[in-house]
Write a sequence for this structure.
C-alpha cells in the first residue's frame, strides 16, 4: 500500500503522469463508441421493463423448488380461469422461492390467483407476497423520473456555474453526466437486466455520484489554473492534466469506497433475496458509479479543457507558451527529444503562494533534461518533450 | 470556521457531544428507540392511488387531495383496519399503508371514486336484523327522534335556506338550530306514494327536472323489497338507486340524482352565531343553486313525510334531510341534532363529493411478514458488510487514520440512527428497503469526504508543510471541495424527493439526510479529531503505522520533523521560486 502512497506522491509532483488531456481523442473515441453501442442496444433491443412498468400482478411465495415447480404453478394459475389472465409467467428465484406474473386482473381474480398460488405453495394466504400495478403507474414513475432528471440537470448547471464561475465547467460536467447515464442504461439494454423502479432510483442516484468526483477534479483544475493567463508557462490543458493526475488517486479511492457498500448490497441482495429492489438498485449504482469514475477522469476534464481552449485568452496563452517553449527548445532541442516520454509540467500556478514554496531549481537556464527529485526530496523542474508540447 | 477549528477543536467535539446527548435525551423522553419500519420490511399492504380530475384533464389541488385523504382514512378505518398510515405525495398521489395481512376487498373500497349525488327518497325501510321485518315503527314521528330504529345514531336533519345570500347566512338558521326539530320523515314504509306507475322503467333522467318527475314503478318496488344491504349496486346518476346508510340499518329507495357533487361549491360545519347546535352550511355553484331551488321547490311541495332527499356518497346514504320550503340563493343549512363530529363528517363528505376527482389504483404491494423480515435482515447484513469493507479499505490505505474513519463512521451512524428514529416519531418518516439502501450507499459518500480531506492533507505534507499546519491548510481547501460535492448530492436528493414518487422518495430522503449528517460529522468530528491527533506523538511525528509516515506519503521525510542534513531548507513558505521555469 505504501507503494500506492508513493505513486500518489509521484503523481502529485508530476514525476509520474498520464497525459489524460493529450490522449483525449482516444478516450473521446472510446466514449463515443460506448455511447453509440448503448444507443444501438437501447433502440434495437429495448429495455427489459419489469412488471412495474407494464402493469400486471406479481405473486411471490416461498416454496421448495423442484423441476416441476414452474409447470405446476403455471397449471394452477391457469386453472383459476381469471379474466384476461394471458400467459402467466412463472419463474423460480433461487432454490426457495417462486414468482408468478400475470397481466392486470380485477380484484376478485387477484384474490383467486393468490389463493391458488398459496395452495400450490402450501403456505398460508398471507404469506404470499403480491404486487399489483396499474398500467399507467410505470409511465408515471418514468415521467416523474425524467422530469426529475431534467430539473436536476438545469439546477446542476446553475450550481456548478455559480461555484466555478464558469459555464463551461457546467457544460463539461453535464455532458459527462449524460454520458454516464446513457452508458448505464445501455448496459441494461444490452445485457437485458430487468428495469424496475428501483433501477430508476439507482440511475437517478448516479447523477449525484458521478458529479461528486467531477466536482473534486474541477476544483483542483480551478486551483491550478487560477491566474494562469498571467504567466506564459502552461496552457490550460497542461494545468488541467496536472489536476487530473493529482486527483486521480483521490478519485479512485472515493470510487472504491463508494463501490464497496454498493457491492455489498448487490451481493447480499442477489444471494439472500434472489431478486428485488436491493439487487436492482445496487446493480444500477454499481455500473453507474464505475462509469462515472471513468468519465470524471477521462472525459469531463478533457471536455473542460477543450471548451476553455477555445477562448481567445487561452489561445493567446497557448501561442505564448508555444513561442516560449520553441525558444527554449531551440537551445536544448537535441537533448529534449532524447528525453521524450518523461515528465510533464508540474507547477501550473506559479503565482499562488503555495506553489511558490517549491523552489524550482537554481539555474535560470532551462534544464537540459527533466530532472528527478534530488536526494533532498526537492522536486525539480522538468519539461515536456517537444512531441508533447504545444497544442 | 477555519479559525475556530484551528484554535479550538475540543469546542466542536463538545458541541457535537451535546447534540448527540440531546438527540438521545429526546429519544429517552419520547421512549422511541426503534425506527418506524416500512411495510416492505415488516409485512403489510401499500396501496398507491393516483387522483385524476373526473374528465381526466386538469390538476388536482392540494386541499382537494387532502380532503380526499381524510375520506380515504375514514374508509380505511371503516374497514376495521388499525394502524393504517395514509399520506399524500407528489401532488396527486395518496398512499395507503396498512400493516399486516389485509383482505383483497380493501383495495376496492379504498380506491373507488367518490360519487356524491342528491336524490329524492321514495321509500325507506329498516333492515336492522333485530328490527321488525317491514314497517318501521309507524305512528307519528316525534320531533327530535327519527322514525328509524333508535339504534341509528345518525341525526335526522332539515335543510333550511339561508335568508341572506351571503355572510349572514347563519342568522336564519338560528331559530332552527335552537329548536332542533328534525322534520325528518315518518317514512311510512308502506307507501312511498307511487302515484303513477306510469313511467315504469324510467328513462335515464338527464336533468334535475326529469329526475324530479321520476316515480318508482311496481317492479322497482318489488326489487327494493328484496334488496339487502351489501348487494352489489351500480350508482348511475340517471337511474334509481337502492341504498343503505352507513350503519346498514336502513335501506332507501332513491330516485335519479337531482344534483351531483360538483353542483356544490363548499360545505362547512359550524355553530351559527348565537346558536349552540352544530350544523352544516352548504354553498352551491350558480348552476347548482338553481337546480337546488327547483329541487327544493318540488320536494317541499310533496308534503310531510315525502319531502326528503338523500345525500348519497359512493352509493351510501349519508343523510336524509327533509325540505319544508323552497331554498333560493344558492346557500342552505342542514340542521339537526348533530354532534360536532357528525357535522364535520357530513361537511367533509359533501366537500369531498364536490371534488371532481377520481382515483386510479396505481399499485398495490402486499409483502408477507416473512419476506419483510428477510428483506430487513438482508438490508442490515448488506449494511454491515459494506461498512466492514469500507473500514478495511481505509485501514489498509490510511493505516492509523483508519481509526478516524471508524470513529467518524460510528458517529455518523449514531446521528443517522437517532435522526431516523426521531423523524419517524416527529414526521412519520418510515424506513423502507429503499431507504436502507440509501443509508448503505451513504456510507460511501461519508467515507468519500474523509478521503478528500486525507488526500488533501497528504498533498500538503508532500508540498513541504509540517503535519500540523497541513491539517489546517489541507482542511481549508478540502472544506470547499467537500461542501461543493455534498451540495450536489443534496441537490440530487432534494430534486428526487420533491419530484419523484413511490419508493424513490424514501431513498432520496435518507440520501439527503445522510449527506447532511456527513457534513456535520466532517466539520464537527473528523476535522477536530484530526487536529487533536496531529498533536500526538504517534500521528504528529509520522509513526510508521499512522498513515502519515514519510515512506507512506512517498516523501523522504516529514518536513519539520527531521532536520535535513544536506542543503538545509528554510521554511518553505518564505521561499520564492528563483527561476527554474521551463
Amino acid at each position: 500500500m505504501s507503494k500506492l502512497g508513493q505513486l500518489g506522491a509521484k503523481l502529485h509532483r508530476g514525476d509520474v503522469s498520464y497525459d489524460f488531456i493529450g490522449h483525449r481523442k482516444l478516450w473521446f473515441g472510446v466514449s463515443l463508441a460506448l455511447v453509440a453501442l448503448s444507443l444501438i442496444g437501447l433502440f434495437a433491443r429495448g429495455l427489459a421493463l419489469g412488471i412495474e412498468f407494464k402493469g400486471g400482478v406479481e405473486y411471490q411465495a416461498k416454496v421448495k423448488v423442484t423441476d416441476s415447480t414452474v409447470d405446476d404453478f403455471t397449471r394452477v394459475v391457469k386453472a383459476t380461469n381469471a379474466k384476461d389472465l394471458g400467459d402467466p409467467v412463472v419463474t423460480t428465484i433461487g432454490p426457495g422461492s417462486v414468482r408468478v406474473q400475470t397481466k392486470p386482473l380485477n380484484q376478485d381474480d387477484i384474490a383467486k390467483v393468490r389463493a391458488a398460488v398459496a395452495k400450490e405453495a402450501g403456505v398460508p394466504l398471507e404469506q404470499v407476497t403480491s404486487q399489483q400495478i396499474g398500467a399507467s403507474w410505470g409511465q408515471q414513475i418514468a415521467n416523474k423520473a425524467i422530469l426529475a432528471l431534467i430539473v436536476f440537470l438545469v439546477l446542476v448547471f446553475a450550481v456548478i456555474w455559480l461555484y466555478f464561475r464558469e459555464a463551461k465547467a457546467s457544460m463539461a460536467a453535464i455532458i459527462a453526466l449524460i454520458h454516464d447515464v446513457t452508458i448505464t442504461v445501455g448496459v441494461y439494454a444490452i445485457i437485458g437486466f430487468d428495469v424496475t423502479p428501483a433501477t430508476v432510483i439507482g440511475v437517478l442516484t448516479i447523477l449525484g455520484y458521478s458529479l461528486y468526483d467531477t466536482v473534486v477534479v474541477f476544483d483542483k483544475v480551478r486551483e491550478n489554473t487560477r491566474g494562469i493567463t498571467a504567466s506564459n508557462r502552461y496552457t490550460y490543458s497542461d494545468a488541467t492534466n496536472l489536476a487530473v493526475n493529482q486527483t486521480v488517486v483521490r478519485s479512485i479511492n472515493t470510487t472504491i469506497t463508494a463501490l464497496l457498500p454498493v457491492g455489498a448490497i448487490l451481493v447480499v441482495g442477489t444471494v439472500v433475496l434472489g431478486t428485488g429492489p436491493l439487487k436492482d438498485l445496487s446493480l444500477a449504482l454499481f455500473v453507474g458509479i464505475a462509469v462515472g469514475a471513468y468519465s470524471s477522469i477521462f472525459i469531463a476534464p478533457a471536455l473542460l479543457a477543450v471548451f476553455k481552449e477555445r477562448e481567445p485568452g487561452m489561445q493567446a496563452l497557448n501561442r505564448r507558451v508555444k513561442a516560449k517553449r520553441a525558444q527554449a527548445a531551440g537551445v536544448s532541442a537535441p537533448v529534449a527529444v532524447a528525453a521524450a516520454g518523461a515528465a510533464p509540467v508540474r507547477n501550473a500556478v506559479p503565482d499562488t503562494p503555495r506553489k511558490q514554496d517549491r523552489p524550482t531549481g537554481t539555474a535560470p537556464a532551462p534544464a537540459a533534461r527533466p530532472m528527478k527529485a534530488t536526494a533532498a526530496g526537492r522536486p525539480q523542474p522538468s519539461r515536456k518533450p517537444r512531441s508533447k508540447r504545444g497544442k | 470556521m477555519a479559525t475556530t477549528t484551528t484554535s479550538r477543536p475540543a469546542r466542536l467535539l463538545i458541541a457535537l457531544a451535546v447534540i448527540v446527548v440531546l438527540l438521545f435525551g429526546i429519544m429517552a423522553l419520547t421512549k422511541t428507540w426503534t425506527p418506524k419500519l416500512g411495510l416492505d420490511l415488516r409485512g403489510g399492504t401499500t396501496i398507491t392511488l393516483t387522483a385524476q380530475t373526473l374528465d381526466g384533464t386538469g390538476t388536482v389541488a392540494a386541499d382537494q387531495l387532502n380532503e380526499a385523504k381524510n375520506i380515504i382514512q375514514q374508509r380505511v378505518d371503516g374497514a376495521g383496519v388499525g394502524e393504517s398510515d395514509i399520506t399524500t405525495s407528489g401532488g396527486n398521489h395518496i398512499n395507503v399503508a396498512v400493516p399486516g395481512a389485509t383482505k383483497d376487498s380493501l383495495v376496492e373500497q379504498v380506491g373507488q371514486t367518490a360519487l356524491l349525488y342528491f336524490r329524492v327518497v321514495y321509500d325507506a325501510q329498516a333492515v336492522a336484523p333485530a328490527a321488525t321485518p317491514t314497517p318501521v315503527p309507524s305512528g307519528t314521528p316525534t320531533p327530535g327522534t327519527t322514525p328509524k330504529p333508535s339504534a341509528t345514531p345518525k341525526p335526522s336533519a332539515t335543510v333550511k335556506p339561508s335568508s341572506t345570500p351571503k355572510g349572514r347566512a347563519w342568522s336564519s338558521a338560528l331559530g332552527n338550530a335552537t329548536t332542533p326539530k328534525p322534520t325528518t320523515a315518518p317514512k311510512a314504509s308502506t307507501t312511498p306514494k307511487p302515484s303513477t306507475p306510469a313511467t315504469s322503467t324510467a328513462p335515464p333522467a338527464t336533468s334535475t327536472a326529469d329526475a324530479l318527475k321520476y316515480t318508482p314503478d311496481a317492479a322497482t318496488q318489488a326489487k327494493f323489497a328484496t334488496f339487502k344491504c351489501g348487494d352489489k349496486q351500480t350508482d348511475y346518476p340517471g337511474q334509481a338507486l337502492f341504498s343503505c346508510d352507513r350503519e346498514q340499518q336502513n335501506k332507501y329507495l332513491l330516485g335519479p340524482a337531482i344534483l351531483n357533487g360538483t353542483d356544490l361549491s363548499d360545505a362547512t360545519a359550524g355553530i351559527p352565531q348565537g346558536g349552540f347546535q352544530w350544523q352544516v352550511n352548504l354553498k352551491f355553484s350558480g348552476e347548482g343553486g338553481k337546480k337546488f331551488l327547483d329541487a327544493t321547490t318540488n320536494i317541499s311541495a310533496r308534503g310531510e313525510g315525502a319531502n326528503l332527499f338523500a345525500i348519497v356518497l359512493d352509493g351510501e346514504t349519508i343523510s336524509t334531510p327533509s325540505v319544508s320550503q323552497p331554498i333560493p340563493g344558492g346557500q342552505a343549512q342542514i340542521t339537526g341534532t348533530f354532534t360536532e363530529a357528525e357535522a364535520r363528517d357530513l361537511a367533509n363528505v359533501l366537500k369531498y363529493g364536490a371534488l371532481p376527482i377520481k382515483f386510479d389504483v396505481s399499485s398495490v404491494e402486499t409483502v408477507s411478514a416473512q419476506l419483510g423480515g428477510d428483506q430487513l435482515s438482508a438490508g442490515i447484513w448488506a449494511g454491515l458488510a459494506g461498512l466492514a469493507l469500507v473500514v478495511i479499505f481505509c485501514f489498509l490505505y490510511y493505516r492509523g487514520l483508519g481509526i478516524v474513519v471508524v470513529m467518524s463512521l460510528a458517529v455518523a451512524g449514531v446521528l443517522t440512527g437517532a435522526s431516523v428514529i426521531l423523524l419517524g416519531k416527529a414526521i412519520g418518516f418510515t424506513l423502507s428497503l429503499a431507504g436502507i439502501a440509501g443509508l448503505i450507499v451513504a456510507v460511501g459518500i461519508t467515507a468519500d469526504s474523509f478521503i478528500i480531506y486525507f488526500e488533501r492533507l497528504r498533498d500538503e505534507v508532500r508540498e513541504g508543510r509540517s503535519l500540523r499546519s497541513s491539517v489546517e491548510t489541507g482542511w481549508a481547501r478540502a472544506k470547499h471541495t467537500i461542501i461543493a460535492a455534498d451540495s450536489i448530492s443534496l441537490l440530487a436528493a432534494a430534486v428526487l424527493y420533491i419530484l419523484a414518487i413511490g419508493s424513490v422518495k424514501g431513498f432520496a430522503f435518507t440520501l439527503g439526510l445522510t449527506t447532511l449528517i456527513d457534513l456535520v460529522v466532517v466539520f464537527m468530528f473528523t476535522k477536530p479529531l484530526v487536529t487533536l491527533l496531529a498533536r500526538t506523538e504517534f500521528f504528529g511525528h509520522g509513526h510508521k503505522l499512522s498513515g502519515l509516515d514519510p515512506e507512506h506519503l512517498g516523501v523522504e521525510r516529514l518536513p519539520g520533523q527531521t532536520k535535513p542534513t544536506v542543503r538545509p531548507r528554510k521554511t518553505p513558505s518564505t521561499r520564492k521560486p528563483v527561476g527554474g521555469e521551463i
Observations:
- The two ends of chain B are 39 Å apart (CA to CA).
- Residues 1-6, 130-155, 163-202, 562-582 of chain B have pLDDT under 50 and may be disordered.
- Chain B has 17 helices and 14 strands.
